[in-house]
Amino acid sequence: MDKEPITLNGLNKLKEELVFLKEKKRPEIVASIAEARSHGDLKENAEYHAAKEEQSHNEGRITEINDIIARANVIDVTKLNNEGKVIFGSTVYLEDLDTGEKINYKIVGRDEADLKQKLIFFQSPIGKGLIGKNKSDLVEINTPSGVKNFEIKDVKYI
After folding, report:
1. Tens of pLDDT along 117-144?
2. Measuring CA to CA, which residue among 124, 56, 136 is closest to residue 95?
3. CATH number of the CATH domain containing 144
């Protein structure tokens, strides 16, 4: 079983989701199934089938989160001293040298990655291109949308 790196924040979010699914969502679904059952014939009972399907999705997600937590290798970057070096969990402040746009990304594990939140998977093209680089480095990264040129303006461990 391979360990998956995850930030402390990412692990805490998964644990919160797990508590919600087990303690709030699961009882709601059980109540929905009981309610639908009370309506009689289950073969043609859409509410019952919808509730059973929701139950299946919920239990699947619970299993998935338990698996992620079991494989989690928590990396707390606030406890690491890597002055200016891009590592897993660090936040990288970049300037796109082609457009002048300033952007920042936090380098995270697979289960935390969310581009809208500026959380990028450490094994994505940009993640791979940044890991190991240092503040002030110029970086050329091949992305699915073409070659990007960045300057690393800052690296923070927050």
Report:
1. 999 999 999 999 999 999 999 999 998 8
2. 136
3. 3.10.50.30
Query: For the chain, what is the mean pLDDT?
Result: 92
Give the C-alpha separation, 29 to 49, whole Å: 11
Q: What is the pTM of this model?
A: 0.78
Task: Name the residue range of residue 81's domain.
Answer: 77-156
Last residue of a domain, one of 75, 101, 121: 75
The Cα–Cα gap between 29 and 47 comes to: 11
Look at residue 1 in the predicted model and tell me its pLDDT. Answer: 62
Residue 45 backbone dihedrals phi, psi, to 5 degrees: -100, 100
User: Which residues, including other chains, have CB under 8 Å from residue 74's CB and lie 6 or more apart?
Assistant: 6, 7, 8, 11
CA 110 to chain centre: 6
Say if CB 158 and CB 99 are below 8 A apart. no
pLDDT band at 45, cuts 50/70/90? confident
Count: domains in the chain: 2
How many C-beta atoms lie closer than 10 Å to residue 24's C-beta? 10
